Each structure stands twice: as structure tokens, then as C-alpha cells.
Amino acid sequence: MLLCAPGLWRSRAKMASFISVPLKKSSEVDLVKPLSKFVTASYPEGEEQSEYLRAVEELNKLRKSALGRPLDKHESSLEILLRYYDQLCSIEPKFPFSENQLCLTFTWKDAFDKGSLFGGSVKLSLASLGYEKTCVLFNCAALASQIATEQNIDNDECLKAAAKYYQLASGAFSHIKDTVLSALNREPTMDICPETVGTLSTIMLAQAQEVFFLKATS
């Protein structure tokens, strides 16, 4: 694997060069205390309250698994990230984050900050679940690009896997491009601004198409 533009990695195989995206890093957040406080205030003691409190504990553990440790470039790691993202989507309408009743601040670093081609702030802290969702989805896309770049393109099944993960990355970056400004309601770091993720989406889609070309000509 060869280092190319700052923050991006290039894998070289045959005559093809493929780019992957680094992961964003997040500070630790305790989800249990504020969410449990809301649950106990909103639901009477009993089985329903206990069930919600257990769910809060599991969500906190899931965040630590998804964001609190280095992730292998493997499908199992991507599944953990995607599961956490799905859980965030699930709880968003059930808790009054938008009403500022829950004191939860999420801090994320710019993925391209060190020697960045894109520049931008080092990190951004927001009391916004939409911000957390956006950053987690960015990591889903970034990890998918890394998994794709690790594939052995001399192998037919690996070529199919690479194309799938590049397409997944492209779709995730495209979704961020369309939703990030409304999710944050303020200026994002440069790695997740619409122009950056739009460019990354285009690159990932082009790489998926190149993989299909390699498969067709092999």
C-alpha cells in the first residue's frame, strides 16, 4: 500500500491505483446517564422502563465497539458501524434531542486534518444526534473504501467484493452530501462538507466502475 495525497491511501495492483479514505475519530461519550435519566422521568417503574434502560446500556456498548477502538478492515467491523448507525436512526424519533432536553455533545475530528489536502478545523463538538449520524455514516463509507482497496483484484470474487464496497462508499458519501447541512445547521468540518463528500462519492463510484472494467477484461 502506498501513501498518496495527504490523508488518502492508494493501493496499487496491475495497472490500477485505488484510493481509500481515513476514518474520523470521536471522543468518548457516556450515553447511559442522560438517556437513562430521560427514560426514568418519562416511564413509570416497571417492565417497560427496565426494557428501555437495558436498551440504553446496549446502545452505549455498541458505540464503544463501533468507535472506541481501532477497526479491522473487515466486513465484521463494517457491520458493527452499520448496526450503530441503524440504532441511531431508530432512537432519533423517540428522544427529544431537537428540544434540547437531552444534554449530549458529540465531538469528532476532521479525518483529513493532519497535512490535509482539504484543510479545515481539527474537530467539531455539537449537541446533535444528526451530527453523530453523519460522522458514523462517514466512517461506514471510509471503512468500506478501505475494505475494497484491500481486495486482491486477481481474484474474481474479490473483484465483486471490491465493486460492492466502493458502491456502498459512494452511496454513503452521496447521502451525506445531500443531508449534512440540514443535519448540522452550522458549518461542518471540511471532511464532511458537501463539496468534499461529493468528490469522494464520485471517486468511489469511478473506482467501482474501474473494478468492473478489470473484471470484464481479465
From TrEMBL:
InterPro entries assigned to the protein according to its UniProt record, in alphabetical order: BRO1_dom, BRO1_sf
Classification via SMART domains: BRO1
Domain BRO1: 17-218
Domain of life: Eukaryota
UniProt-recorded name of the protein: Rhophilin, Rho GTPase binding protein
Lineage of producing organism: Eukaryota, Metazoa, Chordata, Craniata, Vertebrata
